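Hello,

Our lab assistant flagged a job as stuck in the queue for most of the afternoon. It eventually completed. Since we weren't sure the result was trustworthy after the delay, we are filing this so someone can double-check. Below is the sequence as submitted and the structure that was eventually returned. Let us know if re-running is recommended.
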Amino acid sequence: MLKNEIIQILKEIPLFKALSEEHLLKISNEFNINKLKKGKTIFYQEDESTDLYIVLEGAVKACLIDPEGKELMLNILKKGDFFGELSLLDGKPRSATTITVADSVVGILKREKFLTLLNNNPIIAISLLSAIVDRIRMTDDMLSSMAFLDVSRRIIKFLLNTAQKESKMTENGLIKIKKITHKELASCTGASREAVTKALKILKFRGILIEKNEFLFISKDIEL
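-- returned structure --
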């Protein structure tokens, strides 16, 4: 990936958008660039590493995995998203496992380089805190759903949240979402795969969810 491509991506990231072209060039020179195949683990929960990562191409999932291999997906990170910020700031082990969900390119910035950058550009701290708060709110929302919503409503809420980022409205007022596997839905909603399969059957039978080819369709006005 060329330096000017990296700089262009950095310009679009809230964390760095207030910096000058000169600063962005210096940052891009500090990055190590890694090309990773789909399914590659970047780091594991409890790993002793403190670098900051930025997705330059592809997508990465952050998840928790128990000793039996059951997975709870926390977030999907796409081009322009950064991750690893908690260990970056406190120097403690990783709080989650990160795995590529597509062939990806990530930029890696060493902790000492970032802290120097932060010291010289305090405005970055405001953007970083804002991003961390957003992720805390998202986690709180997910925990609330798992505690108070049944599996069917968890699925609907997850699909609607996904739709806000990447789906399109059809002419008849339905939201069009790329199909998600039962395993992925189970990981994202904290339910078993069997419970997800059962809930999807009920949602389709009731006409709340429509499956066609590689897409799911759902009304934007549905109430949880």
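-- support follow-up --
The delay was a queue issue, not a problem with the job. The result is valid. The chain has a mean pLDDT of 87. Residues 32 and 108 are 5 Å apart (CA to CA).
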